[in-house]
Amino acid sequence: MSFPVSLSGVCKTCDSKKILDDITVFLRPGSINALLGPNGAGKTTLIGCLLGLLTPDSGSVQIWGEKADALSDSMRLRIGFVPQTMTGLTWFRVQELKDYLASFRNSKEDQEDRIWADWAALDPKARISTLSGGERQRLAIVLALRFSPDLIILDEPVASLDPAARRDFIDLLSRHVQRRETTALISSHIISDLERICDRFLFLQKGRLIGDLAADVFTREIRRLAVWPDTHLGLRIISDQPDGSVWVSGWRPELDTLDLPVLSGDMEAYFLALTR
After folding, report:
1. Does 273 have pLDDT greater than 80?
2. Of the four, 20, 54, 179, 270, which is 20 to 30 A from 258 by CA?
C-alpha cells in the first residue's frame, strides 16, 4: 500500500532537549488519526515536520513519497492545515482573503466548499481584525478545507469553538473524509470529540510514541478491570492505576461470560492511564 504520510525513525532536538525520539508512523488513505499527548509531548513539533516547517535531525518524513521539507508546489496544494490560532492577514476582509488565496489555484469552489462556508456563517464583508476567536477559527477551517485537500492536518482545531459549532464541525469532517477519501491527522485535547470519528489513536509522551491503537481494537480488546486478572486468562497488563484498577489487552468474547469486574473506561481514561 502507498501511504500518504510516512515517518520513519524521526528524531528532533532543540536546545539539547530531544523533542521527538525515533517516531515511526504511516497514515493510511481515507483515515482519521488522532494525535494525543500532554503539553510538551512533541505534537506541534511533529506537525511542523509534517508540514516541512521543521527538518528532523535524523529519520525521514515523506508526503506521497516526497520529502516533506522539499515538497513540490503541486503536492503542497494537496494539503490543508488548520493552526491552533489564526494570526496575521487581519487587514483583509473575509471574502477578500478567500479570493486572494484562491488566486494561487486553478480550482473552483464546489458543493463541498459551500457546505463549509454555510457552517462557518461568516460575514464576507467583515474585516478579519474584528472577528472573535471562534470566528477566526471557523475561517481557518474553511480556508484549509477549500478545494478538498487530500491531506488535512489540524492542530487543536476546535479549542475556540462553541459546543454547537464544535459538534457540527466534527460531524462534517467525518462525512468529508468519507466522501473524499481524505487522510486527516487531528491534534486535540478534547478526546471525547475524537473518539466519535477517529479510526486510530497515536499517543505521544516526552517525544516518544508510546501507543498506536486502532479504534476498533480499543473497543474489542481493551478493558479496565477493578482487580488484577488471573494469569490463566492470558490478558496483558497495560497499566495499573492508583485505585487498584488495571487496564488490560487481549480481551476475547468468551470472557464476557465470566463474572469479571469490568469497569467503564473511555479513550480519555485510557489516555490518562498511559500518560500519567
Report:
1. yes
2. 270
pTM, rounded to two decimals: 0.93
Tell me the pairing of strands 262-263 and 32-36.
unpaired
**Whole-angstrom distance, CA of residue 250 vs CA of residue 236:** 6
Q: What is the CATH number of domain 5-214?
A: 3.40.50.300
pLDDT computed for residue 192 by the predictor = 92
Cell 503541486 maps to which residue?
A: 74
Residue 11: which residues within 8 A CB-CB, separation 6 or more?
18, 20, 21, 22, 23, 56, 57, 58, 59
pLDDT at 86: 86
What gap in Å lies between CA 101 and CA 270, rounded to an integer? 41
Task: Give start-end residues of each CATH 3.40.50.300 domain in the chain.
Answer: 5-214
> How many Å apart are CA 251 and CA 255, to the nearest integer?
7
User: What's the alpha-carbon Rg for the chain, to the nearest Å?
Assistant: 21
- Cell, residue 20: 521527538
Provide, rounded to the nearest whole percent, the portion of the chain with pLDDT above 90: 82
**Cα dist. 53→50, 57, 106, 114, 157 in Å?**
8, 13, 25, 30, 19
